[in-house]
Amino acid sequence: MTSKDNRPPSTKTISRRRFLRGAGVTLALPLLECMAQKSVVTSSKILQPKRMLLISNNLGVLPKPFFPETTGAAYRLSPYLKELKEFTSDFTVFSGLSHPACEGGHSTENCFLTGARHPTSSGFRNTISLDQYAAEQLGRQTRFRTLNLGVNIDKANRSLSWTRDGVLLPAEDSPASIFKKMFIQGSAAKIKQRLHQLKRRGSILDAVSESAQQLSQNLGRNDKARLDQYFTSIRELEQRLITAGEWEQNPKPKTDQSAPQDIVDRALLFDKFEQMLTMAILALQSDSTRIVTLMVDAFATPVFQLEDKVKSTTGYHSLSHHGMRADHLTQLEKADRRQMSLLSHSLKVLASVQDESSRLLDSTMVLYGSNMGDANTHDNTNLPILLAGGGFKHGQHLAFDREKNKPLCNLYVNMLQKLGVESDRFGSSTGTLTGLKS
User: Fold this and answer.
1) Could you tell me if 16 and 35 are in contact, meaning their C-beta atoms sit under 8 angstroms apart?
2) How far apart are CA 372 and CA 380, in angstroms?
3) For 361, which of 114, 209, 351, 374 could close a Cys bridge (C-beta 3.0–4.6 Å)?
4) b/e string for 164-188 if b means 16 or more Cβ within 10 A?
């Protein structure tokens, strides 16, 4: 028996957005062979998967060499942006953006993708980050919902990724480990062991859930609300465990890239940054995930290599408090230019990879920025923000009021909508940014 399109049911194409529903559970299907078939085209235009690469240096860059002095589509590239000259038509630079009421100098580093207010206040709890919110809305479409990466990162205290409950998601700082997770297929015995572990975790969650339900019978309204939130987290984790089990049995993608060796010397900051950018692009290119975050923890970086055989005279944090000292400014400019150069190289790689009928860059939004507008003065306004690729109309400097900044979360709403998330609010947003068009 064949289906209506004259193909056997086992080879009928299934949409990548197809979900399984039943018994109150919604589960996104993993990548199956039948999803990759292109024998039937249901639209005159193939819809490309949308992706995000979100990068932040928690000490930012020197403001003056970063921001252009002119605005609009005919703006003149600033000294730093000249490092990206080859991709002028592929990125937009913004000024006059920040997170309202997100003040406190370095305390804002965990709020770059959340926009949570008053991070230094008593009892502060972070909110959900842009990457995790997008992953929630889109469902599980790839082996990894998101990848959260870090360079020289203080894993216990800093991260770009935060759950809905304001819990830190530790960043992965080992390129070798990331590569193994993405491309190295375990033996049948290892897979069986992993499935057993996942099943055992699920049974533990069932026991915890039952105990918590018994407890809730004697709780007041507020405590019940908190417990309901806890139940929601448990249900979400249960669904992730089930889906993880499905992916464990799926073959991993192949790559010609050699497995990397971790760089343990924290002084080699930019070598580590380049290596992690390579892992991020490999993850997007192999469709292992469509959302990647990457925090460069400059605050935790000691004396570091500026260029061949030349090291900074002090740690990155001390260097950022330059006090207008010429030697500090010279070193910071070298560090900033190296960041811009690495970003340019990443855009070049993304532009060189063909994704279906277009460049991978055209389907990947690359956000570069910081929670610091000026680390020297602990200023958290007028943040350095650059957005490349992703199908937007670029090649401009969108300048907003540098005294009364627009919410950075407005840009995040633009990005969410481009990603396919039907949302008009996120964090402290008041809408979308005007001037940024597809």
Assistant:
1) yes
2) 5
3) 351
4) eeeebbebbbbbeebbebbbeeeee
